[in-house]
Amino acid sequence: MLELLPPPPTDPLWDLTYEFGTDERPERLNLVLGVYRDPAGSTPVMAAVRAAEIRLAERSESKEYRGLSGNAAFNRALLGMVLGPGGPGGPADRAAAVQTVAGSGALRLLADLVCRTRPGTTVWISDPAYVNHRPILEAAGLTVRTYAWRDAAGGFDAAGALRDLAGAGREDVVLLQGCCHNPTGADPARQDWEALAGLAGRAGWVPFVDLAYHGLGDGLEADLWATRMLAERVPEMLIAVSCSKNFGLYSDRTGCAIVLGASARAVRHAETALQNAARTLYSMPPEHGAAVVTTVLEDAGLRALWRTELDLMRDRIGANRAELTACLTARGHGDLAATLARQKGMFSMLPLSAPGMLALRRRFAIYGTTSGRINIAGIPEDRIPCLARGIAGVLEQPSPPTQRLAPRPRIG
Ligand SMILES: Cc1ncc(COP(=O)(O)O)c(C=O)c1O
Known about the structure:
Elements: H1 12-22, E1 29-30, H2 47-59, H3 72-83, E2 95-101, H4 102-117, E3 122-127, H5 133-139, E4 143-148, H6 158-165, E5 173-177, H7 190-203, E6 206-211, H8 220-233, E7 237-242, E8 254-260, H9 264-281, H10 288-298, H11 300-330, H12 334-342, E9 347-349, H13 354-364, E10 366-367, E11 373-375, H14 384-396
Helix pairs in contact: 2-10, 2-11, 3-10, 4-5, 4-9, 7-8, 10-11, 11-12, 11-14, 13-14
């Protein structure tokens, strides 16, 4: 049977990561994947997470199955974190959360929910979008269209997004990244978010918010502002939440899918549909990361420690961005520096084409994605001048690559 399988496409980000692993130049710099690295270049376990893990190891008594929605206390804690304290009658009162296999699992379960509700629904994603948005939505059976996101100067293209989304109707869903847009780093200003909420209200499309970097842009509350504002304004909304970045739980695959509905009945049905989707995909999500997050969020001391650590990560990303822009300015690239300085979160997009990014890899051993994205949070402090030198070098002399590294081997 397997002999019949034609060579499938491989994942471009993991291909680059593989290529990085085979690069023997000591100065090589991996800015491909979206992981936070400390000044020494490692991705540490957060102290609040470590303390919660120790507590859990000492106290947990059973690994019995959880329910189909996963860890109920985790779901409550994430609903509270995402939608805010609110009051009676607020968005949290008409919402349900189901624990998922990280943010990707939440995106997939919510896409399944949309497909079960109305097969073939059109979901609008930004152009450019997170590399896995289209594949996840299409794999669930949805139709994907795109709307403008980035203007020529590298900022959020409010006019373009509103123009394109004027074509979205009441049967459509619009996927919006709640903060720290991946891959551009360009976020809407508050008045742009208000305009998007107004459009959703008038046209009747359902916002589907992807939250993967809250806490790493302007701070946790500020990064959740747009999501909370939308939740107050629209009758229905879907939210995919990842704990991978802001709790550093990348490999523990921790997240949740949130639905907001206009009636208790609709929310109950949506929650059951999410459970059914999970049941046929993987049955139940893994417990460990959810137990860790719950332990952190329910304990005032651990929660405060986590917030301090999250703020430190955000400050370091900001410091890296500031240092990179200073180095680029010193090299005579003030316009690019000004663009990068306005962007938020882990990523920035360089004004380099695929050949330019290839030249950056070949000539300077600096690995970003082919589309021009680099992970600002992944640069060791002492390497920022080298990064600026490489970017300036390619901008000033975009020469073709001379030598190829070995492609990733295939089995068989
Ligand atoms: C915008 C966005 N959404 C969702 C995810 C999925 O994150 P995870 O499945 O690792 O929680 C990512 C990961 O990089 C992302 O950048």
